[in-house]
Amino acid sequence: MKDLFQKQRIKMVETQIRSRGITSPAVLAAMETIPRHIFIDEALQAQAYQDNPLPIGEGQTISQPYIVALMTQAMEITKKDKVLEIGTGSGYQTAILAELADQVFSIERIANLASGARKCLDALGYFNVAIRVGDGTYGWKEEAPFHSIIVTASGPTLPNNLLSQLVVGGRIVLPIGDHRMQTLYKVTRLSEDLSDIRQDNLGGCRFVDLIGDFAWGSTVY
Question: Is 19 a catalytic residue?
């Protein structure tokens, strides 16, 4: 079974990710290495390396592999970086970040998901990850600034308090839009002035809603 999944991972990277223009050697290697199937329910594991998102419970999903790769590459992570993730979910994206960065801080509003992600990450030996349960739209001020931030749920706007927790030159990658369709953006902070940013459009996407005081209302489970 392990060999089967390894072959599926390699095929996933070649047919879904590299072929669509993802070129970062570190991202490609991480996605070939990290077992996506352990982050989903056993009943769905046969679908783990298909080209689509999958449910993980609580009305949430694990993102399509290509979207994970696209967002991660846009973050431009180095081994010295401290990164922030808003929306731990299953922990799969978190594991990719942990493989690439020095430190990862991840916020999840649903305690059951945070607990499940922690178990998977510990099982894989990713101890450079801190997870807490709360409203991710506030960020993690005590640990700021971050070299890059990823938001794995969609809100109507870019929260300035997340932007303010980036280093100058840092990147935040997030979907922005309404409840049905969004656009994925890479936003680079260019100076201390929060209005001084560069926005790169990475294409259309569809994510679950970002729930929080600075997005679609506050609901912390």
Answer: no
